[in-house]
Amino acid sequence: METILSTDLAEYIRKECGENVFLCYQCQKCSSGCPVVEHFDLAPNQVMRAVQLGQKEMVLQAKKRAAEGLQ
Fold first, then answer.
1. Terminal alpha carbon distance of the chain
2. Beta partners for 4?
3. Which of 3, 14, 40, 51 is the most exposed place for a label (fewest CB within 10 A)?
């Protein structure tokens, strides 16, 4: 499996929202304090790292576990 790193997703987020995802330095405070983290495939810090690395498909294909059971 080939991994391609890109800043396109981070730049898109910056353009649309004004947020710089590269300011996240992976302290994991967001994941540690998130009351619903166990219900998702990716923790908040994992989403941020994937966005930083341009792994758009990983972020977009992540699912909420609770929703899968309802289908």
1. 30
2. none
3. 3
Task: Give the position of tokens 């730049």.
Answer: 11
List the chain domain ranges: 8-63
In the Cβ-directed half-sphere of 37, how many Cα atoms lie within 13 Å?
Answer: 13
Sign of the dihedral defined by the CA atoms of residues 57, 20, 22, 66, in that order: negative
8 A C-beta contact, residue 1 and residue 18:
no
Per residue in 7-25, pLDDT tens?
999 999 999 999 999 999 9
Q: What is d(CA 13, CA 39) in angstroms, rounded to the nearest whole number?
A: 24
Structure tokens at 69: 């059971």
